[in-house]
Amino acid sequence: MSNVVEVSRLTKSYGNVTAVSEVSFKLEADKIYGLLGRNGAGKTTIMHMITAQLFATSGVLKVFGEEPYENSRVLSQICFIKESQKYPDNYTVNDVLELSSSLFPNWDREFANDLVKDFQLPLKRKMKKLSRGMHSSVGIIVGLASRAPLTIFDEPYLGLDAVARALFYDRLIEDYSENPRTIVLSTHLIDEVSRLLEHIIVIDGGKVLINEDAEELRGSAYSVAGTATAVESFIAGKTVISREPFGVLLTAGITGRLSEQDRKKADALNLAISPISLQQLIVQLTGKKTDVKGGAPK
Amino acid sequence: MTLIIDDSRPIFVQIAERIEDDIIQGRLPEESQVPSKNEFASFYQINPATAAKGVNLLVDEGILYKKRGIGMFVATGARAVLVEKRKEQFFEQYVVTMMREAEKLGISADQLTEMIRRGEAK
Amino acid sequence: MNRIGNVLKMHQRDKFAWLIIPFMILGSSFVINLIVGFLSGVGIYTGGLMSIFIYMFVLGIIVLPQTFPFAISFSVRRTDYYAGTVLHALISGGFTAIILLLLSAIEKATNFWGTGLHFFHLPFLTDGNIVQQFIFNFLTLVLLFFWGFAIGSVFRKFRAIGLFVLTLACLLATTIMMVLIISKDWWDEIANWFMDLTAFGLSLWFLPIILIFAIVSFALIRRSTV
């Protein structure tokens, strides 16, 4: 079975607010996915439904080929690390790690111990006395050492500095290379993680906006800049994703490959062409004010 | 050589270019072993599948070849092939662009030749 | 079984909530009463023992917000969470009931700590034999835990609005009962019924109530979200 997750027309509404609207996608085994989008786009809600922590309003959801709700065969293969994970007040770091070793069948104790040293965590300290960054480190350690066939990190690095985040990416790639598994990274720090990703799903306003191989997305958009009239004549008939006027000048973002003919035309019109990075592309696509934002009443 | 990966182009192409650079500049001699996809992945902090795609691109072009159970190696004659390819790219990337820019500035072909001589002397 | 065992382990790691805090509360209540007994010099009967029973009720309420979101996020099934938590409460109730019996015996053996303080060994509660006393302690502790647990699960599933509605419903039910009792003049019968009850007999009446709380909380927890 190659599909770890299959989601079809998945919807979650609260009263007349639709948080997730008819979302469909598949997650294949042993790939690293990026679930990207702005805060409040519905990413966390989708992941909560995949892990049976929230109930879908409608739609079909299969994880490891089965319904995840109250299904220990499915749940024991999942590790979901979220930004604001709550722990019992009296729990120490050690309590969390020890319990995790019983809860996750693939738990690697040695790896967990190494990570504790890497992140310089005080084992005996209570969870609620940890700094924000240390708190996040505990989640990262559980997520990595659990080696769960489906591991989900939802904004796992609140309060972590750049060094600690780099350490996380380092350990993630190293361990993933040796122990491939399906990993979902949900984040808005796109530029930091995009290199790690094999496939990207962008959620915007509760809907799937992009579902594409990461390499296909890189170099799939470019921007043209020049005088407004020249730019307008160049972009006619093309898929324009952004327009930024600046005095008599105009910069436009365009998706699609640049043909040799396009390049010549741009030269003739004296236009400057530059590639759009993955981060910029997603920012431009999700930055638009769309009608679906916030969920329109039906 | 820069470690920074540019996010506006496919990474596997950039990985292939890095390996090509290493072969051209002699850091990876012919018949030497190329790092594994996992080593590339850790070093550049990229997805191993992407690294593999970059390596496989060069395998398809006959620049690298696979020894079963051992790894990837630089093919004999790979350097010469790459240098030829790069010369062609050089013409496209630098000469053609230079001519275009020269035209804009009204630099004649003779003046350009003179400039290249001066550049050589530096 | 292993999965329920994991939930047991989860609760066992929280020794503060299940062991240290309840006996600290009980202990400090006892010490204060003992000092008062010494100073006053007269034999006193105190309700300080209630503190550990009340704590069981509080524990029932707080155990859900403390551990449910954590357990569910760490891939525990709701059913296993419920079974493990209930099992742990029963074990804890049994353990506490035995400790209370022991303390009661010690109190009697030391001639009420030499001061006449009746803290653990109280009339009515110690009327029956040792097994009956154990069952009373155990069922009372369990009833209070399940009562809190049911309230906690209403809050878990329906949040504040659920608790509000529940409170209103309870008030309404009590009022109707009162009106009924007064209008039908049942006071004497009810009073007599209670007078005739032993502690043990009373605790057996707790069983159906515990069962109702258990069913309600199970149904709610199965549908609760993080």
Brief sketch in words of this structure:
Chain B contains five helices and three strands, in the order H-E-H-H-E-E-H-H. A three-stranded antiparallel β-sheet of chain B has the order 1-3-2, covered by helices on one side. In chain B, 62% of the residues lie in helices and 8% in strands.
Can you describe what's shown?
The complex is a heterotrimer of chains A (298), B (122) and C (226). Chain A has helices spanning 43-50, 72-75, 93-103, 109-118, 132-145, 162-178, 190-193, 214-217, 228-235, 260-268, 278-287, and strands at residues 3-14, 17-28, 32-36, 58-63, 78-82, 150-154, 182-187, 199-204, 207-213, 221-227, 239-246, 249-255, 272-275. Chain A has 298 residues and is α/β, with parallel strands linked by helices. In chain A, the strands form 3 sheets. A 6-stranded mixed β-sheet of chain A has the order 5-6-7-3-8-9, sandwiched between helices. Chain A is elongated, with a radius of gyration of 22 Å. In chain A, 44% of the residues are buried. A 3-stranded antiparallel β-sheet of chain B has the order 1-3-2, with helices on one face. In chain B, 62% of the residues lie in helices and 8% in strands. Chain B is elongated and about 60 Å long. With 226 residues, chain C is mainly alpha-helical. Chain C has one domain. Chain C has 7 helices and no strands. The two termini of chain C are 24 Å apart. At the A-C interface, strand 5 and helix 3 of A face helix 1, helix 2, helix 3 and helix 4 of C.
Secondary structure: elements and pairs:
The complex is a heterotrimer of chains A (298), B (122) and C (226).
Chain A: E1 3-14, E2 17-28, E3 32-36, H1 43-50, E4 58-63, H2 72-75, E5 78-82, H3 93-103, H4 109-118, H5 132-145, E6 150-154, H6 162-178, E7 182-187, H7 190-193, E8 199-204, E9 207-213, H8 214-217, E10 221-227, H9 228-235, E11 239-246, E12 249-255, H10 260-268, E13 272-275, H11 278-287
Helix pairs in contact in A: 4-5
Chain B: H1 11-24, E1 33-34, H2 37-44, H3 48-60, E2 64-67, E3 71-74, H4 78-105, H5 109-121
Antiparallel strand pairs in B: 1-3, 2-3
Helix pairs in contact in B: 1-3, 2-3
Chain C: H1 2-12, H2 15-40, H3 50-73, H4 78-109, H5 130-184, H6 187-196, H7 199-222
Domain HTH gntR-type (chain B): 9-77
Pfam families (chain B): GntR
Protein name (chain B): GntR family transcriptional regulator
